[in-house]
Amino acid sequence: MSSDEQQIRALVAEWMAATRAGDVDAVLRLMSDDVAFLRAGRPPMGKDEFAVAARALAGPEAPRIEGRGEILELEVAGDWAYAWSRLSVVVAPADGSASIERAGDTLTVFRRQDGRWLLMRDANLLAPVERSE
After folding, report:
1. Which pLDDT score, from 0 to 100, does residue 1 have?
2. Beta-sheet pairing, 127-128 with 100-113
């Protein structure tokens, strides 16, 4: 595995850990200023909108967010890279109400800036997971 691949995998692991810890600033440092999150049925979300949404979910009354991911494909070409991943996210509200799980595939584009890899584009195809009781 190349050093670039290792760095990108470390970025993804750091993103998951920072999200789990509710560390919004750490997550924001892992993305480019021109980041775009592509969402089904909604306009793309930029860094500022992401920050507002993430901060609204932080704090003592915040839901607990647990994610599991597996990178299925990772390709690096110069200062650009992409990863196809399978992701599952469970959001457990602080009030103890029912958790919400979403799962599916993501396609993420990374760009090397100033010697470090940053998330630049993310297309998220997560859908609600139906639970049978």
Report:
1. 84
2. antiparallel
Q: List the structure tokens of 18.
A: 């920072």
Residue 85 in any domain: the answer is yes
Judging by DSSP bridges, how do beta strands 31-39 and 116-124 pair with one another? parallel
Low-confidence ranges of the chain (pLDDT < 50): none
Distances in Å between the alpha carbon of 37 and those of 1, 57, 119, 130? 27, 17, 10, 24
Q: What is the pLDDT of residues 8-42, one digit of tens each?
A: 999 999 999 999 898 999 999 999 999 999 998 99
User: CATH no. for residue 70?
Assistant: 3.10.450.50
Structure-token match 């299925």, residue found: 72
**Do residues 69 and 11 touch, judged by C-beta distance below 8 A?**
no
Per-residue tokens: 55: 């901060």
Q: 30 lies in which domain range?
A: 3-128
Q: Go through the chain and tell me how many residues it has.
A: 133
What is the count of structural domains for the chain? Answer: 1
What count of other Cβ atoms lies within 10 Å of the Cβ of residue 107? 15
Closest residue by Cα to residue 79 from 132, 123, 115, 35: 115
96: Cα separation from own chain's centroid: 24
